[in-house]
Specification:
seven-stranded mixed sheet; five-stranded mixed sheet; alpha/beta; 22% helix
Length: 298
């Protein structure tokens, strides 16, 4: 697939917070992220703020609960549980540590109302699309868990007023396409964006790119994206905000003029550089309101 080509590498924040035993990367005084193999989790809150004063955004791959707990304790204090967990969406690589984390923390989990069926035991996600994009990660996608998981006792819809529980000054933005209820988080005061998988900053279809975390402004992971018209509209919307800092679900955080230019280029040329040439959802997208699959069975 043709990628966004820049005259120089995209600017990204490569500073490690080396005071933390697990090398969590801090990108603003109150925002940090940690890479867990193929995906990032994000921590909102000032270091040392203590119990109930911080928020976890997304919850990683299977087996990552211990790493998340250690990173949280290193950043916020021993035993400090969050005020809430916010999910950008419910794919397995963003929710798989939840069961273990909730045994420790017992806090509410928030997601968009259109994601709730995949998080309360009612529905499976439509199947991934191994024909969308080349690369090992795409080829392996039929093996990835589809759910459902059941979080009913703690699951809550995000507030309809656009606020984000536990994150004053932030708003959630509906950015569908990758999933029907995908959201991104936005802080207008300093133009900071937590984009989830609305767009990402590495070539997620390639196992080599994932391992190396090569910075690359990229559309949502092809093998998991259900509606490409919505995905393009979401990227165009986020580019129009002109963020100064973007933390995504996959790849390194990026900031500054070069990042904004790359994001605008992605939005402008989305059909050519982000949409796969083949795949089950290219001509048979899921319903943007329900997520029901229009596509015929494989």
């Amino acid at each position: 697939m043709k990628q966004v080509i820049l005259n120089e590498p995209p600017a990204y924040d490569s500073r490690w917070d080396r005071t933390r035993a697990d090398y969590t990367r801090q990108v603003t005084p109150d925002l940090a992220y940690k890479r867990l193999a193929i995906v990032n989790v994000v921590f909102f809150g000032l270091p040392g703020c203590g119990e109930g004063e911080w928020v976890l955004i997304d919850a990683g791959i299977p087996g990552s609960a211990g790493a998340i707990l250690r990173a949280a304790e290193a950043r916020f204090g021993e035993g400090a549980k969050p005020a809430a967990i916010i999910l950008t969406h419910g794919h397995f690589d963003h929710v798989s540590a939840l069961e273990t984390l909730l045994e420790k923390w017992k806090v509410p989990v928030y997601a968009h109302e259109l994601e709730l069926p995949y998080l309360d035991g009612r529905a499976l996600y439509p199947p991934p699309d191994p024909k969308a994009g080349s690369g090992l990660m795409s080829a392996l996608s039929p093996l990835y868990p589809r759910g459902p998981i059941d979080l009913k006792p703690v699951l809550r819809p995000l507030p309809r007023d656009g606020s984000v529980p536990g994150m004053p000054g932030w708003a959630w933005l509906r950015t569908p396409g990758h999933t029907p209820g995908h959201v991104s988080l936005w802080r207008e005061d300093d133009l900071t964006l937590v984009a989830g998988d609305a767009f990402i900053t590495t070539t997620q279809e390639s196992a080599y790119a994932v391992a190396m975390q090569s910075p690359d402004m990229h559309g949502p992971p092809m093998y998991y994206t259900q509606n490409w018209v919505d995905a393009e509209n979401s990227v165009r919307f986020l580019a129009s905000l002109e963020p100064d800092l973007a933390v995504t679900g996959h790849g390194p955080a990026m900031r500054g003029l070069i990042m904004r230019s790359a994001l605008k280029t992605l939005a402008r040329n989305f059909a050519e550089v982000a949409v796969p040439k083949n795949g089950r959802y290219l001509h048979h997208p899921t319903d943007p309101e329900t997520g029901s699959a229009y596509a015929p069975a494989p």
